[in-house]
């Protein structure tokens, strides 16, 4: 990925649910960024914004995979941006192509839901209590055969 993590100014292509989380990650990594919305992505359009050192596009992950080498600056998809920002590990065995999956592997997809407190997914029996919402934690888990246990509320949510 051409030492993308060292790039200081990033461009974010598209306004998408995935974008909000990545923008927070860029800010936390002390990266400046600009959000642009384009009808199509062409090398010449992105090259015109020469101060941007790396691009992340959320239109389709295959754009970066199939056409990324055609662009003068790195053109990453959200998974690759997660790796560059050290929020995901590069999978050397299998490249995750789960961008539109309902149970995706990471927060680089628009449908990603954090794992439930019970450790299950909907397909393995979870009833939908998420560990990232205060109200869900306060209600306790409905998952598992024993009805689940009410977890202790983290100090940050108390």
Automatic annotation (TrEMBL):
Transmembrane segments: none annotated. Signal peptide: none annotated. InterPro entries: DPH1/DPH2, DPH1/DPH2_3. GO terms for biological process: protein histidyl modification to diphthamide. One of its GO terms (molecular function) is 2-(3-amino-3-carboxypropyl)histidine synthase activity. Residues 137-158 are annotated as: Disordered. Residues 137-148 have a biased composition (Basic and acidic residues). NCBIfam families: diphth2_R. This is Diphthamide biosynthesis protein 1. It comes from Portunus trituberculatus.
